[in-house]
Write a structure and sequence with these properties.
With 493 residues, the chain is of the alpha/beta class. Helices cover 46% and strands 16% of the residues.
Length: 493
């Protein structure tokens, strides 16, 4: 028995054997609560039952086929072995410093993990650890020769527009069931593409339960709707869910992980990343390297790469994935596997059983190796051509910038000369005005000095006239004409 998850609830299957009987439960957890209005129905994930098929391998095969048919998740276009990432408290400098070691080990992809965002939904870097513009952060890692992925919080909103709701802390959250949510998800992806991100990892949202309850959605529903919307908007960028399982150097954990999804990969159900934490004391055996080949999805190495295990990690990464499934899927950490390899035409080129610790590890596919070498050579040529093109472009831009600067300098010099001429003209004019003012002042001073003499002369003239009048006898015989003649003789005016 099993479940076919549809993204409706957090579903679990738990059975244990006791005294020849199996006891347990199958549960769909609706978290937070679902408010059922009159006439509403509560839908659970479909229950899958297989009866009369005793072979665990066939049960596993049948379940995987049903799962792939009902869930219908398209394969992700990502063929790399994986990427490295760092803890959520690390910043850009730490990512750049770790790049060289991981590159030497064969990992040329990096994931900027959770914790890079300042305010959730802002799509801006956390102050003190990342720049505000994450485009520059992605650019710095790209300059180190890495393909850069970014982890995003799917439901945090930049604003509080239609289709959003605020939580008690003032943050805005997207309702993924609302028609307006499509534009919000597209805006996130547009930002990532603008940063030249190579892939996307969708984190598990921290949206509060009370906001989800207000939307009428369970956490599983909201996460599933957001993931599908982001994946559709990001096409053709690869989009993955955030890793939920972590392994180290324990061989059994690697075998359990590979066997749990081996048949899924046969039907194109590529799993999400498997987190791998390896410290300097990790013991990476040849068997563990083989078990890592059975994992069909990307491996997410977390932390810096210790020099003590750098060589072993390089060997592990260099081994290609193989199509394999456990012979007995009912066993924990199965050691007997069936390897099947096909050529480009679909013909079987290898079909054998491998027992870990007894048989040789899967031999590399010669054609695949040559294909990878050719692809790498082509990528190197393309990178070299791009580097040359960038150098030519940079040189042209430098020349253009120098030319523009020279032109600007000439313009500034011409402007300075013109300004000097204007200033000189203004100074000359000021001198002229000053000279005219001085001349006017001198003339006014001279006029003021002559004024008293003129007044004295006028007074003297008046006195003489009065004397002449007094001394001239008055005659009846004299007319006006004779008086004028006498006056003219006295004072010719």
């Amino acid at each position: 028995m099993g479940l076919i998850p549809q993204g409706l609830a957090r579903s679990t299957v738990s059975f244990k054997e006791a005294a020849g009987e199996w006891h347990g439960d199958i549960t769909c957890n609706y978290e937070p609560y679902k408010l059922l209005k009159p006439g509403a129905k509560l839908v659970s994930d479909p229950l899958w039952i297989s009866h009369g098929v005793p072979e665990p391998d066939r049960v596993d095969l049948n379940y995987s086929w049903v799962y792939s048919t009902l869930v219908k998740v398209a394969p992700r276009p990502f063929n790399e072995r994986g990427w490295y990432t760092l803890a959520s408290d690390k910043g850009l400098d730490a990512y750049v410093q770790a790049a060289a070691d991981w590159k030497k080990a064969g990992i040329d992809h990096v994931l900027i993990g959770r914790g890079w965002e300042g305010r959730p939904g802002s799509m801006e870097g956390a102050a003190g650890r990342f720049p505000d513009s994450m485009k520059s952060a992605v650019g710095d890692l790209s300059k180190a020769g890495l393909e850069v992925g970014v982890t995003i919080e799917p439901l945090a909103s930049k604003g509080d527009g239609a289709g959003t709701a605020k939580s008690a802390d003032g943050l805005s959250w997207i309702n993924p069931a609302a028609p307006e949510s499509g534009a919000a998800f597209q805006e996130k992806i547009t930002s990532l593409k603008g940063w030249d991100a190579a892939f996307v990892v969708v984190d598990y949202s921290a949206i509060p339960d009370d906001v989800l309850a207000g939307f009428g959605l369970t956490r599983a529903e909201a996460q599933n709707l957001a993931y599908r919307a982001l994946r559709a908007a990001a096409d053709p960028l690869p989009v993955f869910p955030s890793s939920v399982s972590t392994v180290d150097d324990d061989l059994e954990d690697w075998l359990d992980a590979g066997s749990s999804v081996a048949r899924m990969a046969v039907y194109g159900m590529t799993p999400g990343p498997l987190c791998c934490a390896l410290d300097g004391g990790a013991h990476i055996t040849p068997e563990l390297m083989t078990a890592a080949q059975f994992w069909p999805g990307p491996i997410e190495f977390i932390g810096t790469l210790d020099g003590n295990i750098k060589g072993d990690v390089e060997k592990l990464v260099s081994r290609e994935r193989v199509a394999a499934h456990p012979i007995d899927a009912g066993l924990d950490a199965p050691r007997s596997w069936r390897l099947t390899r096909h050529d480009a035409a679909g013909a079987v080129v290898e079909d054998r059983t491998l027992v870990l610790g007894e048989d040789a590890s899967p031999a590399p596919d010669a054609a695949e190796v040559e294909s990878q070498k050719a692809a790498k050579a082509e990528a190197d040529r393309a990178e070299a051509a791009k580097a040359r093109e960038d150098a030519v472009k940079a040189e042209a831009e430098a020349k253009a910038e120098a030319k523009a600067e020279a032109k600007a300098e000439k313009a500034r010099e011409a402007e300075a000369r013109e300004k000097a001429k204007e200033e000189k003209a203004e100074a000359d004019k000021a001198e002229e005005v000053k000279a005219a003012a001085a001349e006017s002042e001198q003339a006014e001073t001279a006029t003021t000095a002559e004024a008293p003499a003129s007044e004295d002369m006028a007074a003297e003239d008046t006195a003489k006239t009065e004397t002449a009048k007094a001394e001239t006898p008055k005659s009846d015989d004299d007319g006006e004409g004779s008086l004028k003649k006498k006056l003219r003789r006295a004072w010719p005016f």
